[in-house]
Specification:
This protein has 149 residues and is mostly beta strands. The chain has a single domain (9-29, 57-148), classed as Trefoil (Acidic Fibroblast Growth Factor, subunit A) (Trefoil). It has no helices and 14 strands.
């Protein structure tokens, strides 16, 4: 993983969404930038380019209590380390991601070798997905792909 469980790290929805608190829940937010790449030259020698737009912002979190690691998966209670709602904990009992003052629900990061799935409670628990503009743990859903830095 690269980060010790006691270290804070940032998490980014892959690759164009981030976590932000909004009305007490995590909400997807886009803050984008444009990259232009030269992919070759035309017959006249002029550059041929391709552009893409991406989001780079993310929230700082910390697996701060009852942390564990096994078989490249890891988890525990997650505390927010960003300025917004710093020191609050992640709660997801009803599926929706919320900030609460006390530890509430275990979160598990499942290593998929290139990205992580985030699941509620266990490695086989409900996966975290983007539903509308908010993040939610949903049974039977296609898991979201997350990058951990």
């Amino acid at each position: 993983m690269g980060a010790l469980l006691r270290d804070r790290f940032r998490i980014q929805y892959d690759p164009t969404k981030q976590f932000l608190f909004w009305d007490g829940e995590y909400m997807a937010f886009q803050s984008s930038y444009k990259n232009t790449y030269q992919i070759g030259s035309d017959a006249m020698g002029k550059p041929v380019t391709e552009s893409e737009t991406r989001t780079t912002t993310a929230v700082w979190i910390k697996v701060a209590a009852d942390s564990w690691a096994k078989d490249d998966n890891w988890g525990g209670y997650v505390r927010v380390e960003s300025a917004t709602n710093e020191g609050m904990w992640i709660d997801s009992k009803d599926g929706w991601i919320k900030a609460v003052p006390n530890k509430a629900e275990h979160v598990v990061f499942v290593d998929k070798f290139g990205h992580y799935e985030i699941r509620q409670g266990s490695a086989t628990g409900r996966p975290l997905v983007l539903q509308g503009s908010r993040f939610r743990f949903v049974s039977g859903a296609e898991p979201g792909r997350f990058q951990v830095f």
